[in-house]
Design brief:
Order of helices and strands: EHEHEHHE
Strand content: 15-25%
Shape: globular
Distance between the termini: 34 Å
CATH superfamily: Dimeric alpha+beta barrel
Largest sheet: 4 strands, antiparallel
Number of domains: 1
Mean pLDDT: 92
Number of strands: 4
CATH topology: Alpha-Beta Plaits
Length: about 120
């Protein structure tokens, strides 16, 4: 009889991380973006980040020629706990450099109606 340990239960979490609206936020975002993307790529390749990206204004779709205004980030994580996701978000360069507005970040359990 096998006594192999079962793997920990993983849950999905939705993250909404809007940028601050103060002047200079976009410049900060762009200056640290390569480091943010590097970390997110590692998280995605490991399966921790299922999907992630920036959100923008509706004009980016209505007028594809218009520049995309970066307003924040959103993610779907697959993790053992909300605390694990919170720790990741709070260590991200966008958080530590003051791009994301920590008062407005939302992290909630997420249940998909369709497979990711």
């Amino acid at each position: 009889m096998s006594t192999a340990a079962s793997s920990p239960t993983k849950h999905r979490f939705f993250v909404y991380a809007p940028d601050k609206t103060e002047e200079g936020t976009l410049a900060r975002r762009l200056s640290v973006r390569p480091k943010h993307i590097e970390g997110a790529k590692v998280g995605h390749e490991s399966g921790f980040i299922r999907i992630g990206g920036m959100f923008t204004t509706p004009e980016a779709v209505i007028n594809p020629e218009a520049p995309k205004q970066m307003l924040g980030s959103t993610f779907i994580f697959e993790a053992e706990s909300l605390e694990q996701v919170k720790k990741y978000i709070e260590s991200d360069i966008y958080y530590t450099s003051g791009v994301w507005d920590p008062e407005k970040i939302v992290i909630l359990p997420f249940f998909s109606a369709f497979p990711l």
